[in-house]
Every structure is written in structure tokens, then in C-alpha cells.
Amino acid sequence: QSALTQPASVSASPGQSITISCTGTNSDVGAYKFVSWYQQHPGTAPKLVIYDVTNRPSGVSNRFSGSKSGSTASLTISGLQAEDEADYYCSSFTNSGTFVFGTGTKVTVL
Amino acid sequence: QLQLQESGPGLVKPSETLSLTCTVSGDSISSNNYYWGWVRQPPGKGLEWIGSISYSGSSYYNPSLKSRVTISVDTSENHFSLKVNSVTAADTAVYYCARPLSNGNYAYWGQGTLVTVS
User: Fold this and answer.
1) Whole-angstrom distance, CA of residue A97 vs CA of residue B63
2) CB of B42 less than 8 A from some CB of A
3) Do A98 and B49 touch (CB under 8 A)?
4) Which of A51, A84, A87, B42 fits a disulfide with B105 by CB distance 3.0 to 4.6 angstroms?
5) Is residue B69 pLDDT above 90, yes or no?
6) Chain centroid offset of residue B91 CA
7) Is pLDDT larger for residue B102 or for residue A86?
8) Is the CB of B104 less than 8 angstroms away from the CB of A33?
């Protein structure tokens, strides 16, 4: 299975919005609702910020939102804050019963 | 409060077997049908899903690792384990164990443990 494709980096100023794309295939992102997004700060474990394409776990800011169109999922962070600077990974269930992660996106707050 | 803790050797010789255990506290592995997972991250690189297992022992593996990986579960000890055989330097990574919030994601993570193959 190939890693899902994400842009290597995205940057924006505080207060702006960014969108990170995650492109897969009809065997993963395009086939299931089980698309998740993770935030990872250096030296720490990943944190789930979006699951099942659009759902936020308890405690996650409503500035994080998710969507999907066909085989491409997206994570939008609105009102960007300094604490949002981190690496972000998408993940999807696949038709083999396995999971695949995205290549990762480094978000920089200018 | 749910906690997951990875344990095992931090240094493994090439061609030998990497063995890690994830001990779960605050939840019972056998009380639900979650698939408990292993994920790794080579230094400076992205996340890679290794595989997952349910309390009944049903398991799934990353096709690229399947020939070398075994995940097992011990419900009496409330832990699950990972073995990777014939390791090379490419297996050097931080290894995480994790539990879903609902099947299809990983909401609860261990702190991770660095395993170096050298």
C-alpha cells in the first residue's frame, strides 16, 4: 500500500486559515468514512484531531474541521495560532482491512 | 484514566528480533472489540502503520512488513506485543502502541519508545 499524498509544507500568518489535502485512491480514502487527522509536535506522540472525516474528539478546538471529496480528504485550520505549528498526518482505512498514513505536512505559523 | 506504555530493549542487533510490549492500564483489552495498534516513526520521517490486533487475536498487518511482523495479545496480563524479525537499520524508529476512539482511528497513544538497530 502506498502512503497517502500530502503537501510537504503549508504556512500562513496567525489568524488566517489553511487547508491540508490528503489524496488517496478508491481503495482507501475514496471508499470509507474512516479518515482521520493527527497533529504531532516535536518529540511527542500524535494527537487525534479529526476522525471519521468530519468528527472532532472531545477537547479538540472547533477551529479544526475535516471534509472529503472523492479520494481527497482535507483538514482546515481556521484562526491559525502559534500552537498549531506542528506536523499533521492523515490516515485512512483500506479495503484490505489495514491502515495507511499520509506523507505528512509541516505547518508553519509565520 | 487510560494509559498505554511501551517497553522493551532500546538496542537490537541487525538480523535479530525486535520485541516490544504495550501494557494497558485504565481499560481492559478484553472488554471491547477495538483493534489495538502499533505505529512506528523513523527519526525525522513520517508515521508508518505496522498492524493491529483485537482481544480475540484477530490481526491485520501492513503488507510491506507482514512477512517479518507478529502481533499477539495476552488478555490475562492486559497487554499486547510486537515482534519484528530479521531487523535492519531501516527498522530503527520510535515505536508507538495505540487504541482507537472508535475503530478507524487511534485516539490513545503510548509515549513511544526508540528502538535502534545497530
Assistant:
1) 11
2) no
3) yes
4) A51
5) yes
6) 13
7) A86
8) yes
